[in-house]
């Protein structure tokens, strides 16, 4: 299947010599939710801005549904919706007029039924006559999403869509994103909220200092790079881990009441049985145990840390 977005050898150097992107190549499949993660200044917004035709690439090529975003700008832009980070809106316009006008900018014929559907989906229908300046920050962000959806795009970019919004609104947006995906819209999401990617994304890309560190299906990423931990709650606290057990990946809690054993999820042999046997040999008994595995946030932090070490 042809990817809906194809990025090839994309680089960008701004005036002053700052290299925002370094030879990025990436395919995004039709109908998927793709999360792009990275620390501040990693290049996320620059990459999105180039694909959306807001920033010119330095070198390389970007195709959106087969259209070159530079050579076929109008055709490419007509199928893309963008929800930017900034809350800049038409402050004195009504919600209805702002969203309707945005549809017209893309040459789409008037369609009041579609605008009504979008506003209702985003809980903006009761606010349709309000001027945007009268709305709360969360409602203004909903208006940005409505404007991005006004021309029925095939591809929707959400650049930090839930930054600064409350938990309830964030959940509403997640539900809306899933509904759009079910309608065939491809969603590309940048976020600082790792749980957002963990909750919604099909695939995850990690970018750091302008380089694409990794692209992987979410579940495969968590399986491949994740770690599992077994925490043993001890009958009697320990002051230190016995010397004979020093070779095992064991960590003693600050109060000495629990031991945590970390193992690789991909390993055929977890080593748990051996550790339990050795603990028993040393008279270390436990009253309870609990297993857990790495979150996406922990994996992301480790990836960025490793990337920085390699780039240093």
TrEMBL record:
Residues 5-234 form the ABC transporter domain. It holds the Pfam family ABC_tran. The keyword ATP-binding applies. This is Multidrug ABC transporter ATP-binding protein. Keywords: ATP-binding, Nucleotide-binding, Transport. One of its GO terms (molecular function) is ATP binding. Signal peptide: none annotated.
